[in-house]
Amino acid sequence: MATHPTPRGGDAVSKQSWRVGIDVGGTFTDRAALAEDGRVEAQKVLSTPSDQGEGVVHSLTDLDGPATRIVHGTTIVTNLLLERTGARVVLCATEGATDLLELRRQDRASLYDLTVHHPAPLVPRDRVVGVPERRTPHGVERPLTAEGIRVTVRAVLALQPEIVVIALLHAYADDAHERALAEALRAANADLEVVTSADVLPEIREYERTATASAEGYARPTVLRYLERLTGRLAAAGHPAPAVMTSGGGMRPASSAARHAASLALSGPAGGVVGAAAVMRAVGTRDALTIDIGGTSADAGLILGGEPLVEPGGDVAGVPIALPRVLVETVSAGGGSIAWVDDGGALRVGPRSAGARPGPVAFGRGGSEPTVTDAQVVLGRISARNMSGGVLLDAAGARRAVEHKATRLGRTLEETAQAIVDIADAEMARALRRVSVERGVDPRRCALVAFGGGGPLHACALADALSIPEVIVPPFAGVLSAVGLALASERHEIASSLLVACATLTPERIAAEVSKLAAKVEGTERRTFARMRYKGQGHELDVPVHAHDAGASLAARFAALHGSRYGFTLPTDAEVVALRHEAGEPEREAQFVRDASRPAYDAATHTDAGGPARGVVVVGPQAIALPDATLWVALGWCAVALETGGWRLTRL
User: What range defines the domain where residue 554 resides?
Assistant: First the structure.
């Protein structure tokens, strides 16, 4: 957890212009501002769950100078999917294929537990309208007639939708039917918002395309209202309109992001991995696992070759969203996760969280149930009186809350506190294994980048659990997600389905397909990826496409990536399923310039206030109070202060 707000600089940085990143978490809203010379100014305020925008604007109150750009990481889409509070959606699907959302992939939620079920679809069956049309991979089998459109429009309007999603079979290959129906719906009701699946995800797999388009429709109205309201608030306070981080690690202006709501599902966590990648490049390390521990959850990620690993998609709150996203595995093991005893007398931690209100008992805001943060206070690893957001630490309250569980368990206070921390550590270690070992990455050849308010507290234990040799605690660790947001470059993505065997692809064909995509988006920095698989596989890998590539070179690159990721290759032909093109501005690197006017590490109080402290060595066990978090150097570990700020930890 944070121990105190970042000290502000002197006159040398006053009236500076800033690139600002703002990350909304379950407990704190973090703001990081980057000056042109690389200086970083950070602030943490308590989040406002009832209206995230209130905390966003409040975090800018003390900014010393104008903000030239504001990039926001938001949990609004994730919350909508978790709480099922999105829009009233009517789905138009091809007759005979109206049960796609119900059928899913016909897989079980749990292989051996028949009582576990998948979450209900975002669109219930009684709000799915069958469209009298059918397209096959080879062409139109049943045309969509004017009468068919009229009947469909009438049925849709009778259901009083807030938004309509159209997902017709094989629209990735030809979306003429989707476009014709959308035009008719807009003509019938000019105020009706319409989403077509070919606009959201023009790729094969009917279920994933329908589910992703449904998620877009479900979230878009709320995201539109939120960003319009936030833009107005910021304008009233003299700030520019915000941009929003996407799940893929780029950012979009609010006007564009509002109509790409499904791409915002992992907005905040993506910012943390982007920030961690910048730190790794600055310290010269290329491969790393990341752990971002906040108040509500912990997010595990992976950086390979200095870049965040981006995957084609995955589930968010049980909803498949098949859009590119920075790999993040989220578990309910944040500092606010509540410790409880089940009916069998076993100690459990999470998934319930104390959140921002009431928060951990130690925050003195009305919390009564012990949390991971309270356990850390009991163990003496968090000791500062004044914490971020104006919170005064109530250590006695934390001890009473943990003591209550200790009495029930028949254990000592310290044993119970350590057990709470160990349970949370075990859950986070499993998440780190899922993003590494399950993808063919050996954690023992990676560093661990630990950030968020709680990341540095748990870093040594997690590194021990996975035999990771080195831990990097970045400068501004407690607000690194916000730093990543401030660094993010504007990026636009577009994709097209291909489904062609590599053996038939010529350089001319590849160049022509890439040119068609590139013409649809603007940007000075461009990258193209081929989504590839072995013929017959049910999953793909994104392979970079280079100039003058032919099918054979793509196949060789795919085989090398498949071998490194999964440990084997197949003697089967490879094929390209889709092409994805990215265009945007050049990425900005953080210099992490330390402010020489700030005091250096104080050995007497074990406090790093953010000043120049290169070469200082701290041997564990010892807690170090950082400007925006707390670092626990465990027994058997030592920490060395880095010139750029932050700490490098290695075993003795």
Answer: 491-584
